[in-house]
Specification:
alpha+beta, two-stranded antiparallel ribbon, 11 helices
Length: 299
Amino acid sequence: SVGQTMASLGARDARRDHTGAVDFRLGRQCRSYAREDPPPTRVKPIPVRLLRHVAASTQTASPAAVAIADMIIIGFFFLLRTGEYTGSNNDDTPFRLSDVQLFVGPRRIPFMAQPDHTVLATSVSLTFTTQKNGVRGEVVNHSLSGHPQLCPALAVARRVRHLLSHHAPPHTVLASYFEGSRHCLVTTPDITTALRHAATVVGPPYGYLPSDVSARSLQAGGAMALFNSHVDSDTIRLLGCWQSDAMLRYLHLQSQPAMRGFAQRMLIGGDYAFHPNQRLPDGLPNPRGPPAGRLVPLH
């Protein structure tokens, strides 16, 4: 800003008064602008209904379509940023084949030497190395979901099996595939296109338009799914590698399960009284309940 530039040159910051606070007139003007601003445009979380459509459409699809669907599933369940589950160039580092572990029960599968055993995997792990906000060496594990298509373990194992069938080395980006002998990357536009196509076909009855979703919707969708399942915010933050409460920006109260039953719960929780203090007149009934100062439900 102009004020910051002036301050960096040694001049007085014109935005601030003699106490260092933002000038009252400027602050009031900014607040006025904020009241007139349109509602912020937030990415809408992807619901499972749209993911089902993406997964179902790949049963007899090309290697590219299968790879895109697999990475959509992986991004959703692992709450990944776009640069972590695509081959796009940005500040995030994509996961590679060497970051993957496959397990049968507690036993790790040496899949580089035994690629055929990937079909036996019952759980998978991704190890964070240089991904943004991830704790280096942190391991996130997912087991079989029980769904034949929407399953992080099956999707990761399918990616590993495909790459190994083309003799891919350990440093190969997980979000990649082979068309014949040509090595290709799954990009952020690939993900967005697939999600918007699903939103076009099945989204409107559930409140979704193609413009509402993008590749960034998957991390928000995973967080929203956990939130609606009453998973506590600390666990969601750990899984998404958020180091603050930034994840709360992704949660939408428009989601029907998020607000289901709240009206009834508020009627119950809002029916209370206080124990009287010394300023209230004598002769009032003293509600039964906890010690003075505590809320007393009136049931």
